[in-house]
């Protein structure tokens, strides 16, 4: 019986294991140094905030693994020897494999700031980071102020977490508006305002110079590069993105770039070794996607794809139309298709933006100004139906069609206020159109004749 | 690691900490309860109407002030910070104290009302005496333990309903739903039946007197609706009485199936029902305590459907007991009635097995066949064993055991008393025969479903954790499957707490409603075809 070893029990590794089990009787071993059982990494924040216990963020009950004959090994893989088809766990225990899947995820970026390894300075990625946060910032007595460095998704989540315990937070963001490398300016501005509403000391266009230690080697303060200001604090959150966690593979003969280099079949340069999830790096990016995608669902899809390949249906990884979502404090964000920020905008791309006069609700629609083709949508405070936008993107609908049928795509709970009329009348005004909104049609939504 | 509070302290670090306003509000609320407690120990209040008003006002003000302080100063959004740190909402010390106190209250209420001051002949004393003025003002009669309970129940739904609406003020579905349960409790369960009691003996009712009737409370939740004394009451009260009896029959056989077909069982369980109303308002702080394991789900299915069988047998036996044998006196006799029940159950069984067979788990099929055989065999006994008894036991024994085991112990003592331990819907989930019947309709004949939004799920678990019915919502959402479960009461909280906008409660076409395929997880079609291959 073929022996499949998976390094990493995150969403990518576990999806691969589940689907290999669905398709075959192969022996499956998952090795993880982080936790005994699979958990949802994106939910770690809710454990710190007291919304859930750690048990709740484990999607499968503990009997699941034995029942499905998925063997779990706890330990860090320290070495991979492709010639012998063998790997070492914690430097000593040897495990042989017939096929190896590397799914080791990421680790927080550290950019060589002085003091970045002091006690009290930490990233937020793993279960260990969460445990460490309970030590560094258990409450507002121990942590009188926290400074967060890096204005991305993890940074704003960490800010929300600390604020739930009433800890004062200073948020250093390199860009001159929050996440504006990704979000168009109107949306980025809306989030800036919302961050301030939550009493977070947001410092835009601000960089960290160094972290200062006290006499015990603990964080005492940070110094800001632009002004030289010294900010006393007890904890520094380093949340300037993540990088593939692949250092243990150096010298193994597996080709590495920033991550593990893979082709479209998720195969590495070494036969029978695959890489999936955050740690995999495509030789060439797929469409507008990045070569390394640290996103929950891409990890899952790569796991499903590699399972097919390993079980005999060699399959190319084709992630389909881009989509994603996040939550910024109280504001939900969804995106379908491509809407680039001003910085990354394509030549042919034009935006339509609408923002509610009082509520924190806005949308941006990107379309091709040459042929009016709909390219993508960002929504804040409005939920949208994935299936509808996937369909419209497949059918290459034009932007007028999308505006006309926008209500069909709405996924907000029942009785919520709809803004389609306001949105479309602004669109008509902006582009001298006279589009009338259609009524919501279940027939269209569910494609019934 | 998170540390769970095992201490008695009401204070601590945020988000556990209570503000000064919250402490004062708690004190005011407790002082209202203290008046009732003093009355229970027979402290005789001079002006009962005044003291009762003070007490109820203090409870309401305390609750409302507490929630105003807790929610109004924060941005609208999900307010679950610290839920698992607070001892009251995480089965800590105060959770157990609350559970034990509530349980004791129910035991006294159901079995020892004399300790509350109920006096059969003469004036009430104690707590019940305290409530006499209000009862006289509404119905003209002195209070009973049920009037005391009904009043406190209504106050709880109203005060905690306001709290709930503040907590979810960004969510219109939750606000409208809560207004609905508050309205139905106050009007239908509390005021209208009391006012109806004023009509008793009047000419409108031909001099008859109606039984106490909460119109929204239908059989089998009010398992006693077709008992002899109530039928007599209805029939003695002219056209109105007869109309109410017909309404009672229509509500279970016609009205509820239609509404459940269109909207799912939520129209009842989380919009109208009083048990649901209390669970959604006063019980909201305990929703996360429901057990989500597969084991609990298995137990739930067996227990709740056994209660349905029990209530069907019991009601059949009770109606049987007061029917006659002589067709010349009344067309409905013992035999025709039993045959009717047998035909109805058999045809429901046959239709479901013919048209919906593929949707049943193996154990559900065995269960259904087993129970049908038992019921038909017991009905058969009547024709073999001669007169007197149906179903081996005296109908009165069946009625009494049901009312004790299910009506009192299950729905009251366990169902509500154990809110802080097992979660707020223990009764609705494991015990309520009404929920089981509506759930059966919801699972098989309804447009309602919770739609999963393609591939956006991140398996975080908020939906499952905050599902009061113990449904593992995430298990479906992360596979891209819609959620179609008989136990779902449609409270909408899974959709509210989802950080990625994955879930939507909606009434849509039947076609494709239960899509057990993993649709649109965000990958190209050929992978999805392979994934869905069984």
Automatic annotation (TrEMBL), chain A:
Keywords: FAD, Flavoprotein. GO terms for molecular function: oxidoreductase activity. Transmembrane segments: none annotated. Its cofactor is FAD. It comes from the Bacteria. Residues 3-285 form the FAD/NAD(P)-binding domain. InterPro entries: FAD-bd_OxRdtase (IPR050260), FAD/NAD-bd_sf (IPR036188), FAD/NAD-binding_dom (IPR023753). Belongs to the FAD-dependent oxidoreductase family. This is FAD-dependent oxidoreductase. It comes from Flagellimonas aquimarina. The lineage of its organism: Bacteria, Pseudomonadati, Bacteroidota, Flavobacteriia, Flavobacteriales.
UniProtKB/TrEMBL annotation, chain B:
One of its GO terms (molecular function) is metal ion binding. Residues 448-476, 479-508 form the 4Fe-4S ferredoxin-type domain. Keywords: 4Fe-4S, Electron transport, Iron, Iron-sulfur, Membrane, Metal-binding, Transmembrane, Transmembrane helix, Transport. InterPro entries: 4Fe4S_Fe-S-bd, 4Fe4S_Fe_S_CS, Electron_Trans/Redox. The chain crosses the membrane at residues 24-43, 49-71, 92-112, 146-166, 178-196, 240-261, 302-323, 335-354, 366-384, 404-422. It comes from the Bacteria. One of its GO terms (cellular component) is plasma membrane. Pfam families: Fer4_5 (PF12801), Fer4_9 (PF13187). This is FeS-binding protein.
